[in-house]
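REVIEWER CHECKLIST
Item 1: Sequence provided? yes
Item 2: Single chain? yes
Item 3: Sequence as submitted:
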Amino acid sequence: MSKNYPFWTYSGTTVKIRPYSLGKFLADEGFGNYKNSGERTEKGVLFRNRNGILETHSADSIKKFVQTYVENDEIHEYADEDERVTFLDTWISKTANSIETYLSSLPSFTEDGEGDSNALKIFRDTKDECYIPFKNGVVSISKNKTELLPWEKIGKKRCRMGNLYPRSRDRTTARIR
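Item 4: Structure as written out by the authors:
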């Protein structure tokens, strides 16, 4: 569990969200903002890095993530029975614009770590090689070789935006037509 959780204070019947701690909590959970360049004014894409796979998100989907996380939390000892419900009532009433304000503190990433961003290498097809992500790894295809690269060997350095193909790939050879 993140050391930034809970990211709110509670007294009696009032919850106050701590924006800095919320941003740190979300970063600990793999959330960030991916930009194509290091431009400060570029909007970017909200994402969550889950074991090397980048899932795109929106303010609404992150709002739902936080709600589900708090609903299912069985580790944190709440001050009383009302703390969780009071937080959820407060959180659910937040608008997408309010959530976006909180999300502005997420760390920024670019492929090369330009400007004040962190580097995040993403699989990119080239003229000599392409990559297809599956549940159990990434198939790398080149002119001379097709191989399955298991996620465990790839590590967190290489990520790919988008969805995985739902099945596992069990062969490292494929017919290309």
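Item 5: Key structural point noted by reviewer: Helices lie at 19-28, 59-72, 81-92, 96-103, 151-154.
Item 6: Recommendation: ____
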